Amino acid sequence: MRTQLADFIKDTPEGKEAEEIVRRCVHCGFCTATCPTYQLLGDELDGPRGRIYLIKQVLEGVEPTASTQLHLDRCLTCRACETTCPSGVQYGRLLDIGRGIVEEKIERPVGERVTRSALKHGLTSRMFGPAMRTGQAVRSLLPESIRAKVPERRDAGVWPRRSHARKMLLPLGCVQPSMSPGIDAATARVLDALEIEVITPPASCCGAIKHHLNDHDAALVEVRRNVDAWWPHVEAGVEAIVMNASGCGAMVKEYAHLLRHDPAYAEKARRIVELTRDLAELLPAHATTLANKLGSRSAERVVFHPPCTLQHGQKIRGVVEQLLRTLGAEVLPLAESHLCCGSAGTYSVLQPELSKQLRDRKLEALHAQQPDVILSANIGCITHLASAAQTPVRHWVEWLDAKLS
Ligand code: SF4
Ligand code: SF4
Fold first, then answer.
1. Is the pLDDT assigned to residue 159 strictly greater than 90?
2. Can you tell me the distance from the alpha carbon of 300 to that of 318, in angstroms, rounded to the nearest whole number?
3. Which atom of ligand 2 is nearest to the CA of 29?
4. For the whole model, what pTM was predicted?
C-alpha cells in the first residue's frame, strides 16, 4: 500500500516503523476471514484491513474521530490476522502506534477515562491481592458480572523447598498470584520434579496492561523495572526465564523491541528475550521423563484452548496438544481453534458484549466433544472461560502437576 506520511510523524521511529508495515499490506483481505470482530460485526472497519486503512489515514494527517477510536478499540489484539497474512504485516505493532496517536488526539468521555484508569492502576496495584481475596471470600454474594471476574479460591498446595543445580527464573505477574496462585505453585512443583529449581523475583506486572491501554510510557517504566529486577539473576546464570501466562510471555518477548532505542537497556532486554521461554517451549524436552512418572494417570479426555498470545503472539502452535498426547491424554479436536475467546486482557471489561459473544462461541466449541477438563495457558482466558463453563477449566501445568502428585 502506498503511503505519504504527515510531517508530525514521518521522521520519528514510530512513523518509519508504521510506514514499513503499511507498505507491506497488499490489501488482499485474507486476514478478514480469520478476524473475530469482522466475523461478529461484518463491517470492513472492524476487520484488520479496514483498521490498517484507518491507521494509514491518521498517519497521513487525516484527523481521527471518535468512530476511528471505536473501531480500533474493538480490536482484540488477538493477532489472528498476522497468522493469516501472506505478506508478513505486523499488524499488532501498527495497531500500537495507531492507537497511541488516536489516544492523544481524541478525548474519551469521562466514564471511559475512569474505567481505563481504574484498570491501569487497580490491576497492577499492591491492593489487588487483598481485594481479590476479599472478593473470593464473599464470591457467592457478588453480582454475576463481578463474580465472573473472581475465580473461586483453590488451595495452591506446597511450594517445593529442594535446591537443584539447574535454576530458572519464574517472574510472578500482577494478577495471577492472587487470582490463581496454584498455577505458579504447580509450575514450581513440575520443574522441581525435573530437578530444576525456580527463583521468584518480587511480583510485578510485565507491562502488558498499561501497554494495551495505550499508556506506553507507564508500561516502559514497568518493563525497565523488570529488567532491573531480573538482570542480577541473568548475570548469576539462570538457564531460562519461565513464562506460565502466555499473555505475559508475549509481552516480555517484545522487551527487546520496546527498548531498542535505549542504550542503557537495549542489550539487557535482548538477552532477557533470548532467555524467555513459555512452558510449552521448556517441557517438551522432558516429555519422556514426565511420561514415565505419569504412567497411565494422564489417560483423560481433555481439550486445549490455545490462547491468542501463545498461537498468534508467540507463534507456538500445536506444541501443548502434542505434549499432552505424548503424556497419554486423549486430546479432543477443537473447531475454530484460531479464534479468540474474548478475554483479551481488559477487553472483557471494556467491550463486554463482544467479549461475551466470543466466550459463548468458544465454550460451545470446547464442550462439543464433552471433555473431562478444558485446559489453557493464560490466566485471562482461564478465568474468562471458567465464568460460564460447565466443565472445569485449568492451566495445563496445573493438570500435569495434579497427575504427577
Ligand atoms: S488483532 Fe484480532 S481482532 Fe484485531 S484486527 Fe487482527 S484478527 Fe481482528
Ligand atoms: S492479509 Fe495481510 S496483506 Fe492482506 S489485507 Fe490483511 S494485512 Fe494486508
1. yes
2. 18
3. 5
4. 0.95
